[in-house]
Amino acid sequence: MARYTIASAVRWQSLSEEERRSRLQRPAQRASEQLMRQVRDIIEQVEQQGDSALLELTQRFDNVSLDSPVLAMEQVETLAGRTEQKVKQAIDLAYDNIRRFHAQQQPQTVDIETMPGVRCQQRIAPLRKVGLYIPGGSASLPSTVLMCGVPAQLAQCNERILVSPPDKDGLLSPAICYAALKCGVTQVVLAGGAQAIAALAVGTQSINAVDKIFGPGNSYVTAAKQYVSQLAGGPAIDLPAGPSELLIIADDTADAEFIAADLLSQAEHGPDSQVILLSPSTKVVEATRAALQRQLAELPRAEITAQALASSSFIVTEDLTEAAAISQRYAPEHLSLQIKDAEDWIEQTDQAGSIFVGHYAPESGGDYATGTNHVLPTYGYARNYSSLGLADFYRRYTVQQLTPQGLSLLAPAITALAAEEKLDAHRLAVTRRLDSARMQADLQTATASTEGERQ
Amino acid sequence: MARYTIASAVRWQSLSEEERRSRLQRPAQRASEQLMRQVRDIIEQVEQQGDSALLELTQRFDNVSLDSPVLAMEQVETLAGRTEQKVKQAIDLAYDNIRRFHAQQQPQTVDIETMPGVRCQQRIAPLRKVGLYIPGGSASLPSTVLMCGVPAQLAQCNERILVSPPDKDGLLSPAICYAALKCGVTQVVLAGGAQAIAALAVGTQSINAVDKIFGPGNSYVTAAKQYVSQLAGGPAIDLPAGPSELLIIADDTADAEFIAADLLSQAEHGPDSQVILLSPSTKVVEATRAALQRQLAELPRAEITAQALASSSFIVTEDLTEAAAISQRYAPEHLSLQIKDAEDWIEQTDQAGSIFVGHYAPESGGDYATGTNHVLPTYGYARNYSSLGLADFYRRYTVQQLTPQGLSLLAPAITALAAEEKLDAHRLAVTRRLDSARMQADLQTATASTEGERQ
What we know:
Helices cover 46% and strands 16% of the residues of chain A. By secondary structure, chain A is α/β, with parallel strands linked by helices. Chain A has three domains: 151 residues, Rossmann fold, CATH 3.40.50.1980; 214 residues, Nitrogenase molybdenum iron protein domain (Rossmann fold), CATH 3.40.50.1980; 52 residues. In chain A, strand 3 and strand 4 form a beta hairpin.
């Protein structure tokens, strides 16, 4: 008999519209009033008392007494030196791939004349100050350091502040320190939760307020990021948050053991992880369910991992076209295409954060080392938000430069539109220039010089 | 004697840090509890009752009784035909310039092998459904239609829904209709305020919910955009809102009449418009203040325009370097450089939404016709948000495609990092593939074929 509860398979065509909606429904995401109040109080405390509030909150929540919220760079270096060789090599390889892929994403300046004498530019500037939040807890997460730190380094953001809750010794793991140094992080702050986000948003005596906050976190971090991004003039944030998701489309070329292993790698993130398998093959679906039972039994954290599988969906579709349509409707964070000629299906399944093509592209590959970013839109946000990329570490601004000739060419349009929009002073800003002796003289000088050039 | 109250000039060096902060302080931006409650009620009403709620709210707020919230395309065409010739030509010219400049901003696909057998792509897809909010009120705003509509058209967003409050006849202005048709808008909706944003966010019987909402609006629109963007799975929005701003840096090559005209074109947007002049030349500052008195007297809406000038700042700086530093600190929406060799100062003043270079680049040029976008970050958001551009109408997603060789190259890094992060199933998703007879066979086939190619 099956030891773990794994959701049964259903046939999409047999479901009512309401049942379909319910199958693809994400768990409700709403921070409780109580949590929001706590978060607001924490942010206000840090705003008013700065470093001392930060230290007090770290004592309360992380049970560590620190002298300063800043981990000195010498100490970061000492800790980094203790990283196991195997882990160092893994970070080196991941770093190189992430760097290679993100370096290709360099946004370009635009510089054109839209009309003679009207030069328009779209320029790019790195964000000056960015905060990179790295969750703490039971494990160290060097991969998240790389995903946020490599693009910040490539963009050359002036200040790249890494914040992460201290371990019980008031330190960070060697692997996090090693990754942080590789990314040229400029400051390491020992703080977690809402208080860490508060410090990044409003600044303290020892930490500068930043322009944008990146990185995942628990419900306090998520609520705090949302809260500070709504403050007037507050920092930007990378993405709205939600539980992690994997949707797999498989046909009968797929290997049930591979599918099961991928579903489990998603499920182990926690009970609210979303796991969906779509296949036109009942055989593949049932083989996967059986493989899950076997593989679960071998996992150290089987009970926790099994929780996400109880609410997962195993859906039998008419064909791959129907599977693709369901995936588009759901817009998963991670989409795995374990089908024949998988590459041909990418465009039809493009509403996803990151797509894993073929039988040899496990989701955990992208989590760590292929080179793509693992900070991705979830909760259906793949429809309208982008996967994290180098562009998110820059801002774009525009420039226009007009000669007197350029302005005189634009003048009829500006004045007519300003009149239509009843903005008289907008119109006068043009006509006062046009009517001025200065502009008339400059126009004549330019005409004369053009004629001079012609002769 | 001066008829209008215009703030006096102050010398930056004579101000305390507190006075400096106060000079550059934006007006508080916080929607009242009452407004937020109203907005929430309106959104819930539209969510529950759809079109009928929309029609009822349009009756209540716009005093117009409509049969449908959708303005039929034939009617849009009829109305567009009534546009004055001069306005048509102005829209045509502005459209061409905006299109030329935005067409250059096409985001590019990235497609590389980060390692042999590890192909990573960053792909681009247009947002499917976008909503373009065009404010109504006393004047028609065809320029905003172009600023949102042209990039939506270039990106080929499938649905481009224009929403705007109806005039007293239940229609829209000819100029708005003409601009909407040029941009290939797919649907025109007669609704304004929070109810219009609600319809775009949650959809009604006749209006599809959209992925992202663009465009400026009054305090109800702003509060509603903020509210719906915070709903779990809600639409994205273009930019956080704030009152419009112009900061001018001028030296003694500047013309006080030009400066005054530009300051007035900013001030006429309303009493909360922010207007700042920085100059090392007391003479230029005082000449500008005198010119403002003269020019105000000639303006039809002088009283309203003068209100913004009462709280404006005229600051005398030590030199242009100090002026640039103040501008960076303020991070204005619009920055005008009316100085000698203005181009050389752009990089030192880059924290701005849009920069107007030289004596012949009035801000109203960029508002309408140079080609740059007039939807810009204000309220200091020029530090961390981008000026609206073509990229905002796309989403980016990533793809990875691995051969068995590629996966075996990545395997040591993935398994070491998964072990470090205590994610066993992540590790097993790789090792189960590696250990499978299938992958071993595929690896051998590939090796054999490579050797075959070599021979």
